[in-house]
Write a structure and sequence with these properties.
alpha/beta; TIM Barrel; eight-stranded parallel beta barrel; 43% helix; binds 2-phosphoglycolic acid
Length: 256
């Protein structure tokens, strides 16, 4: 299985800045066969970047889109409009869940809409700090995994990527708020067990599971060697080109 390094740019960079970053990243990267490098710019930058990108080196991800293909949905962009432009899409990121009120029902429809439009969903799951402190982590993760995949046909399950992002570890600057390899290993094992129990062992082994939450060049190696982790979803650190390329270098070292 490939190692995934996904940069989630969130609400950062103008289209011009995004294009310059992509230009530099393309120049900096060789063509890695075992590493899938993906960047997720703002929706407005996706179309111009899709004309600029060399997909042998880098793939593009949307950060969000709406599940209906067209209609009276002011302000939305659909996955059908992104078809052929985005290779991947993040779905169910905690900022979408908690700032924009997305629930499992909407996320389930978005995962299905992405697959219908040949865009690979990266389904984000993760518990909040209070859910963890009340011992609810396993239930939350199970519900989010099963809920998010409800509308996916069995044959399409190998077109899904899952990212475990503990909400309390996102954009954290305090060491106490960083997820430890043991904590990650436990939840990643639970994700695979949930997949195995629901869809069978073969599917569980095929679905890439990424980790995200304050990943940077110094902790990337430790996170990438957690059993069951197939890659990283990087926010803040992906905004700094040298840090993002350092993380890709770490991935290359860990693979070899
Ligand atoms: P972070 O963001 O790396 O800044 O914590 C990760 C994410 O939210 O996907």
């Amino acid at each position: 299985m490939k190692t995934y390094i996904v940069g989630n740019w969130k609400l950062n960079f103008t289209v011009g800045e995004a294009s310059i970053y992509l230009h530099k990243l393309l120049k900096a990267l060789p063509n890695y066969r075992d590493i899938e490098v993906v960047v997720a710019p703002s929706t407005i930058a996706l179309q111009p970047l899709s004309l600029q990108v060399d997909r042998h080196k880098i793939k593009l991800a949307a950060q969000n889109a709406f599940y209906r293909d067209y209609g009276a949905f002011t302000g939305e962009t659909s996955f059908s409009q992104l078809r052929g432009i985005a290779d991947y899409t993040i779905v169910g990121h905690s900022e979408r869940r908690y700032i924009f009120g997305e629930n499992d029902k909407m996320i389930e429809k978005k995962v299905a809409a992405a697959i219908r439009n040949k865009i690979t969903p990266i389904l984000c799951v993760g518990e909040t700090e209070s859910e963890r402190s009340f011992g609810e982590t396993a239930d939350v993760i199970r519900d989010q995994v099963i809920g998010g995949l409800t509308d996916v046909a069995d044959d399409d399950l190998d077109k899904v990527v899952i990212a475990y992002e503990p909400v309390w570890a996102i954009s954290s600057t305090k060491a106490a708020k960083l997820a430890t390899p043991d904590e990650i290993a436990e939840v990643v094992a639970l994700i695979r067990k949930t997949l195995a129990d629901t869809y069978g062992k073969e599917v569980a082994e095929k679905v890439p599971v990424l980790f995200g939450g304050s990943v940077n060049p110094s902790n990337a190696g430790a996170y990438l060697t957690v059993p069951g982790v197939n890659g990283l979803l990087v926010g803040g650190s992906s905004l700094i080109l040298s840090e993002f390329t350092d993380i890709i270098e770490v991935a290359k070292r860990v693979r070899s």
